[in-house]
Amino acid sequence: MHTLIRVYRVNHQIQQLIIYQSHIYIGQSSYIPYTYKPFKQNLILLTSHLLLLPFTFNNKFSMKKQQQQQQQSNSIFILGSLLLLVLYWQATSVAAQEVEDEREFDYLNASGKGPQHWGDLKKEWAACKNGEIQSPIDMSNQRVNIIQKSRALVRNYKPANATVKNRGHDISLQWVFGEAGSIKINGTEYFLQQGHWHSPSEHSINGRRYDMELHLVHVSPDSNVKNKIAVIGVLYKIGHAEPFLSQLMKNISSMIDEKAEGNMGMIDPREIKLGGKRYYRYMGSLTVPPCTEGVIWTIARKVRTVARDQVKLLREAVHDYAEENARPLQPLNTREIQLYDTQENINN
Q1: CB neighbours of 10 closer than 8 A, spacing ≥ 6?
Q2: Residue 339: partners with Cβ closer than 8 Å, 6 or more residues away
Q3: How far apart are the C-alpha atoms of 219 and 231, rounded to whole Å?
Q4: Of the candidates 199, 198, 181, 179, which has an alpha carbon nearest to the alpha carbon of residue 189?
Q5: Active-site choice (2, 23, 169, 215)
Q6: 49 part of the active site
Q7: Staple 203 to which of 10, 116, 136, 220, CB 3.0 to 4.6 Å?
Q8: What is the per-residue pLDDT across 288-311, written as a single tens digit (0 to 9) for each?
Q9: Helix, strand, or coil (residue 80)
């Protein structure tokens, strides 16, 4: 879910504003990160780019312009001065967001909080039990529709500040949202949000599960887009070390079995290699609660390699119940799996 309101820019032109997770979006693609500190239902926002005026909510999240207490000159904004902004916001949870508190679920069969129980733990997680297009799935040759395509999946990534985080149930790498670039699917731009690792792999190919799987999670802030989440999956088997993961090993080693995070500085997601000319695509869900459906999955057909000690560290770092943090395979039901066969590699 996201909140759509209106905002008065410095030039007093009214623009759309979308608040999604911890970022502000103007129009359909531009964004401005913000920091917030909640005071009950109030949020204090700081930004050097916008001038928000107090507003009142009705059922449609509308706001009324109120008088500015003192005139602000454009030069102040050009110099990047921070403004103190007060926003009255009836906070709502973002349904698309993965659960961060790992104490609410786990991967153990006998704990009562394992995958077979996720749908019973919270009503908001009912899709984990009742959903019709759940992930992960097995991509069998017998169920794949091959599509010839001239151009591969294009990733418009760029270096951005990132944080590695031990979430208890997995290790994630989180970029400042919107700054690390995006991918385009059917004309819709999805911004890279974070990557995380599962071991063993969650998806399988012709019944075979591999040693590790990376998920690159992208989100569209466009209020007109129905399917707001797009995930790229990369499968790995034991072999040569994975160069991108090697950059994170020292930081991950420092947070073994404890929830912690560390700033990595500028990390370039273009260094995550996909390779090959083929990739699967299907409609599915998040693989952790709340198991939100409508996720566009893209799985690279080429299986890459990862060192055994890299997989071992990822398992040691998380809590004991998540050392094997792969959700069981879900029924395909009536879904179609597409295998795109392109004429160029998908590393660009």
Answers
A1: 50, 51, 72, 74, 77
A2: 139, 144, 145, 146, 147, 278, 279, 280, 301
A3: 9
A4: 181
A5: 169
A6: no
A7: 136
A8: 999 999 999 999 999 999 999 999
A9: coil
